[in-house]
Amino acid sequence: MECKVSWNGPTGMSFLAQTGSGHLVNMDGAPEGGGHNLAPRPMEMVLLGTGGCSAYDVVLILKKGRADVRGCECTLKAERAETEPKVFTSIHFHFTVTGKDLKPEAVERAVKLSHEKYCSASIMLAKTANITHSFEIIEA
Fold first, then answer.
1. Once rounded to an integer, what is the mean pLDDT over residues 50-59?
2. I need a surface site. Which of 27, 55, 100, 114 has the fewest CB within 10 A?
């Protein structure tokens, strides 16, 4: 896996990232840091990537268990250290899983497996952050 991140020029703090799979992602800094607030911050990208990684796992685990899952949202709330390096110190994942006759035990198991075994991103971030999770099920 590889990617390339390029600074967009001397008038701000925006960057363009290109993934190895050929996708482009813009990033920008906060106005107080010289950015123009036109795209997500790099640390927001880390957080959303972690949410995507974990939500992917949850859906895949439920589908493999033949659950009739029809939707999955992952809302993340994070806190960062006050001083440099401003690593994440806590992250809470809340999953809203929609489906037909979903069993709470199956959703709980999928979330747990993601965080303890499969989601490389959240397992990495757990080295500095307290990771917690919750979920709710919506009947389709």
1. 98
2. 100
Nearest to 133 by CA among 112, 113, 119: 112
Tens of pLDDT, residues 7-43: 998 889 999 999 999 999 999 999 999 999 999 999 9
- For 76, the token pair is 């993340």
CATH topology of domain 42-139: GMP Synthetase; Chain A, domain 3 (3.30.300)
Please state whether the predicted TM-score (pTM) of the whole model is above 0.85: yes
Q: What is d(CA 17, CA 14) in angstroms, rounded to the nearest whole number? A: 10
DSSP string for residues in the chain: --EEEEE--TTS--EEEEETTS-EEEE---GGGT--S-S--HHHHHHHHHHHHHHHHHHHHHHHTT-EEEEEEEEEEEEE-SSSS--EEEEEEEEEEEEES--HHHHHHHHHHIIIII-HHHHHHTTTSEEEEEEEEEE-
Contact by Cβ (8 Å): 71, 102: no
Q: Where in the chain is the domain with CATH 3.30.300.20?
A: 42-139
